[in-house]
Design brief:
CATH topology of the largest domain in chain A: Elongation Factor Tu (Ef-tu), domain 3
Radius of gyration of chain A: 26 Å
CATH class of the largest domain in chain A: Mainly Beta
Shape of chain A: elongated
Strand order of the largest sheet of chain A: 4-5-11-10-9-12
Number of strands of chain A: 12
Number of helices of chain A: 8
Helix content of chain A: 25-40%
Structural class of chain A: alpha+beta
Oligomer: homodimer
CATH architecture of the largest domain in chain A: Beta Barrel
Largest interface: A-B, 31 and 32 residues
Strand content of chain A: 25-35%
Distance between the termini of chain A: 33 Å
Amino acid sequence: MKPQYLQTLKQIALMGGIHDFVALSSAGLGRTMSISQQSASKRILELLDMGLVSRDLGTRAQRLNLTKEGVEALTREYADYKKIFELKDRLTISGTVATGLGEGQYYVQQNEYKVQFEEKLWFEPYEGTLNIKVGTSEVFKLNILEDSDGILIKGFESKGRTFGDVKCFPAKMRNVECAVIMPVRSHHTDVLEVISKHHLRSTLDVEDGNIVELTVFL
Amino acid sequence: MKPQYLQTLKQIALMGGIHDFVALSSAGLGRTMSISQQSASKRILELLDMGLVSRDLGTRAQRLNLTKEGVEALTREYADYKKIFELKDRLTISGTVATGLGEGQYYVQQNEYKVQFEEKLWFEPYEGTLNIKVGTSEVFKLNILEDSDGILIKGFESKGRTFGDVKCFPAKMRNVECAVIMPVRSHHTDVLEVISKHHLRSTLDVEDGNIVELTVFL
DNA sequence: ATTACTACAAAACGAGTAT
DNA sequence: TATACTCGTTTTGTAGTAA
């Protein structure tokens, strides 16, 4: 759909054409879009041709009304905008369940981390992580997470080993509360580590290779 | 703002450019919008020129990010769509308080109407109506009301006179519950009659000529 | 008043290609 | 690989004007 048609359709809808027939001269429509009467007239004809608007053409004035198809076209556009602006504080990432190296699990078991999880995430994590491998088309969302602050879990030293700062983001998988954890010093992978107070594999009934969807809150 | 710029801006936002810099080749951007690499490249240059996106142009790949102005432009567009789809079940009409012919008042006082108001609107109307004269630019909204069904108040005969069917719509003025009433056989005026269980003129502290805003629910 | 045709002008597009 | 220039083609826009 060419953007100028969408613009015209939107304008007709704004003038009331989404409800009902609305008196709208080609000159008037042109004025609101800063185009000439002739161009507006042409666009109306094209929209009629595409079946996106219907018209009641009297001798004195025409009245325009969006058709079902016209409303659907605008609805799709509206959905895009909703996606954009809801993505501003929420991120939906899909990927496949994978078996990690057990690294995350080792970290989560450290008591100094666990205490902070409980305090800052309001739940005590089950001793283990679920790894989600993100498809290439969505890896850019991981970059967004890496660049966002999240909830800071401070690092510490224990038995001569250094445990670095970790950040986490509240998240949900099929309405089960969980959280994404990642090192603050980003390690650029395509794998997300998820913790929860539940054993996610059994609670969600998933195993390696299953596709899951995760909503992360920024 | 030309619609093709908005389309491009929207696409960049959808690919993640509203959060952060996102790797996006001109060929890839073109593919998602069904335009050539050359045209996509040109549009990017134009958006840069207008200050709507910023770019980090590496040797291998460019990364794009919406600027504050770019986000604002999209926000305005989003607001239009919200208006369209919220207008679908709600109508905000502004006008000036006017003194009517007393016709509405006479009607509302008829007991047969009053009984139905109480039953169908959940309130007993104060014995009087507030008239609102709607500006020419908003008269089209009255047509929407005339063409909508609303809540039917049945007509009757009394003392040899016929009182026709009336319809009403729940409404609010500054959070005060009220209702718009109009004859089913439309009489095409630019005046709305509003009833409420309160005396609106004193409750809202308005008098003739004051501008008021009314939200009508369809 | 309208809408919309024709004829021309302006803008956008894209193939080829430089960088 | 990229991005982006030139330039011929296509699309879009509009002044004049008919209906």
